[in-house]
Design goal:
By secondary structure, this protein is α/β, with parallel strands linked by helices. 53% of the residues lie in helices and 12% in strands. The chain has helices spanning 40-47, 67-80, 91-108, 167-186, 192-214, 219-239, 243-255, 259-277, 279-291, 301-318, 325-328, 332-337, 339-348, 361-369; strands spanning 9-12, 27-32, 54-58, 84-89, 114-119, 131-136, 141-146, 154-157. The strands form two sheets. It has a six-stranded parallel beta sheet. The chain has a two-stranded antiparallel sheet with strand order 6-7. Helix 3 (91-108) links the parallel strand 4 (84-89) and strand 5.
Length: 373
C-alpha cells in the first residue's frame, strides 16, 4: 500500500505573510536566523503580527543546529509556554524550531496550537517535512528526528524574502532542491504522486536556478524556485531520500561543508551509481531528464543520464561551486583518513535505507573518494 500525506497548508505569494494577522491573543515563540533581528525582513514580518500577541524571539541559530543550541532554546521555550511557534529562516532555523519544540513539549507535557514556517531560502523544504536534523559536533555525528507532528501546520512562501539571499546560499540551497528531487524520484517509497513533484523539481531547478544566481532580482524565477523547493520537500518527506544525503551528512559533520553543497558534490556520482545498478532508477532519471528538455525523447536511457550528470556539473561551474573537498579547502590527507568513518556513519544515517540500491562499504567509499580531489 502506498501513502502520500501532506499536513501543511501552503500559502505562496507577496501577500502570504498576511496570514500572521489572523493570530490574536497568543503567546508566540519565534525562532529565526541569527542575522535577522533588526533587519527590514524581520521587521516586516513582525509588523504583520497583531499587538494582542506576546512574542518571544530566539535568534541563537547556528548552521547544522548543534544539540547545545537546542538545549539553550528549550530553556527559554519552557517558561514562555507558547501557544504558537514560528520558524523563520533557512533550514537550520526551521530545524532549530522543530528541535526546540520536540524537546520543549516533552518537558512541558503540552503541545502548541500551531506551528508556522517561513523559509527565507529556497532549499531544504523543511517547511513541509517531518524531518529535523540536529548535530553533535563533539562526536562528529548528525541525528535526524522524524515525527509527523513536527510538520508545520502552515508554510508561508514569500518570494520577497529570498530576493536578497547571498549568491552562495542561492546556489547551494537550490542544488539541495535538485538533490531532493532526484533522490525522492528513485527512493524505495516513491509513487506516482511523488514522482510528479520530483520531475517538476528537476525541470524548474535545471532551468531557473542559474538565473536566480545571476539575476537575484528576477522575481518570477525566484518564486518558481521557492515553490518547487517546497514541492520537493513534499516529495522526499513521502518517498524518502538515499545515500547522497547519508554521505552528505558526513561531509557536514566532519568538514563543515554546507549541506546543499555537500549534496551537490556527491549527486553526479550517486546518480551514476544508482543508474548503473538499478534499471528502474536509470529509466526514471532518464525520463525526468527528457521531460526537463535536457535530452531528446528518442535518446537512450544511459545517454540521457549522462546528459543529466553533465548538466549538474555545468550548473556548479556556472555558480562557482567547488566540486571537491580539496577545492572547498579540506586537507587531502585528513579527507582520505576519514573514509572509514564516513562510510560507517553514512550507513547509520536515517536516509540510507531509502536508496534504490543497497551499496557495499566499498561502493560508498568509491563514491566518497571521487569527491576528495
Amino acid at each position: 500500500m502506498e501513502k502520500f500525506s501532506l499536513a501543511t497548508t501552503v500559502y505562496s505569494g507577496n501577500d502570504s505573510l498576511s496570514r500572521l494577522g489572523l493570530l490574536k491573543n497568543e503567546t508566540i515563540f519565534l525562532v529565526c536566523d541569527a542575522f535577522l533581528p533588526d533587519t527590514p525582513a524581520l521587521k516586516r514580518i513582525l509588523s504583520k503580527i497583531d499587538g494582542s500577541n506576546q512574542v518571544a524571539v530566539f535568534a541563537n541559530v547556528k548552521p547544522d543546529p548543534p544539540l547545545e543550541t537546542i538545549v539553550d532554546g528549550v530553556k527559554q521555550y519552557v517558561p514562555v509556554a507558547p501557544t504558537i511557534v514560528i520558524g523563520i529562516g533557512g533550514g537550520s532555523a526551521i530545524d532549530t524550531a522543530k528541535g526546540i519544540r520536540f524537546f520543549g513539549d516533552k518537558l512541558r507535557q503540552e503541545t502548541i496550537k500551531k506551528f508556522i514556517a517561513i523559509p527565507t531560502t529556497s532549499g531544504t523544504g523543511s517547511e513541509v517535512t517531518q524531518h529535523c536534523v540536529l548535530s553533535d559536533p563533539e562526536n562528529h555525528r548528525k541525528y535526524p528526528i522524524m515525527e509527523n507532528y513536527l510538520r508545520p501546520d502552515e508554510a508561508l512562501l514569500d518570494p520577497q524574502l529570498v530576493m536578497t539571499a547571498p549568491k552562495s546560499v542561492t546556489a547551494y540551497s537550490g542544488l539541495d532542491v535538485l538533490t531532493h528531487s532526484l533522490e525522492s524520484l528513485v527512493a524505495v517509497d516513491a509513487n506516482v504522486l511523488t514522482d510528479g513533484l520530483a520531475e517538476k523539481g528537476v525541470d524548474v531547478i535545471t532551468h531557473d536556478l542559474v538565473t536566480c544566481f545571476k539575476h537575484g532580482d528576477d522575481e518570477a524565477a525566484r518564486k518558481r524556485v521557492h515553490e518547487i523547493s517546497c514541492a520537493a520537500g513534499m516529495a522526499f518527506s513521502n518517498a524518502g531520500l538515499g545515500i547522497c544525503h547519508s554521505l552528505a551528512h558526513q561531509l557536514g559533520a566532519n568538514f563543515h561543508v554546507p549541506h546543499g553543497l555537500a549534496n551537490a558534490m556527491l549527486l553526479p556520482y550517486v546518480v551514476s551509481y544508482n543508474a548503473a545498478h538499478d534499471k528502474t532508477a536509470c529509466a526514471k532519471y532518464a525520463q525526468a531528464t527528457r521531460k526537463a528538455g535536457l535530452a531528446a525523447n528518442g535518446m537512450g536511457d544511459r545517454v540521457a543520464v549522462r546528459r543529466l550528470i553533465s548538466h549538474i556539473h555545468q550548473m556548479m561551474v556556472q555558480m562557482d561551486c567547488p566540486q571537491t573537498l580539496q577545492a572547498f579547502g579540506v586537507d587531502l590527507k585528513v579527507a582520505v583518513e576519514m573514509t572509514e568513518t564516513v562510510v560507517v556513519n553514512a550507513k547509520l544515517d536515517a536516509t540510507f535505507p531509502g536508496n534504490p540500491v543497497v551499496p557495499t562499504d566499498e561502493d560508498l567509499a568509491k563514491i566518497y573518494q571521487q569527491i576528495i580531489k
